Amino acid sequence: MNPMTMLQSASVLLILTAGGGVAMALQRLAKKSNPPNWLAMAHGLLAASGLTLLTYAAFTAGLPTSAVLGLGMLVTAAAGGVVMNLFYHLAGKLIPQWLLHVHIALAGAGTAVVAWAAWAG
User: Fold this and answer.
1) Three-state DSSP class for 34?
2) Which of 45, 33, 46, 27 lies closest to 92 in space, CA to CA?
3) Which DSSP category does 32 fall into?
4) What is d(CA 91, CA 1) in angstroms, rounded to the nearest whole number?
5) Residue 104: pLDDT above 90?
6) Residue environment code for 75-84, b if the CB has 16+ CB neighbours within 10 A, otherwise e
7) Disulfide-capable partner of 24 in 10, 11, 35, 80 (CB 3.0 to 4.6 Å)?
8) How far is CA 39 from the centre of its chain?
9) Cα–Cα separations (whole angstroms), residue 71 to 18, 32, 82, 99, 108
10) Cβ-contact 80, 99 below 8 angstroms
């Protein structure tokens, strides 16, 4: 598989991940409750799939600098997602809004940069 195909496939996975993220954020902010476990797990699985493919492409095929920057933002966002899941969601505590907003900003920016590198670069 060539680098651009891997980059485009990873960006599709990340865009699908964002759809689940929007649904979870709306539930957290509007209903004042954490999202259901199945949705959080599906979101994490899609995110991990996209990140794994993106990381593999970066180390084996080489990616544009912008895609590597996006990967860095996404890895940071993923760390925040792990914190939200392990320390809040699974513990039955309400996820703090500030952490949710930082996660959204980093993941959204990282996904946009990766998608831009995949199709406009």
Assistant:
1) coil
2) 33
3) S
4) 41
5) yes
6) eebbebbeeb
7) 35
8) 14
9) 15, 31, 16, 19, 12
10) yes
Q: Residue 13: what residue type?
A: L
Q: How crowded is the C-beta side of 121, counted as CA atoms within 13 Å?
A: 19
Whole-number pLDDT of residue 1: 81
Question: Tokens in use for 3?
Answer: 């680098």
Helix axes 97-119, 3-30, angle to 10 degrees: 150
Q: Which of 62, 68, 57, 52 is nearest to 13 (CA)?
A: 52
Amino acid symbol at 56: Y
Helix (H, G, I), strand (E, B) or coil at 61: coil
**Which is nearest to 66 in space by CA: 1, 22, 3?**
3
Can you give the pTM of this predicted structure? Answer: 0.93
CA angle centred on 43, ends 65 and 62, rounded to 5°:
20
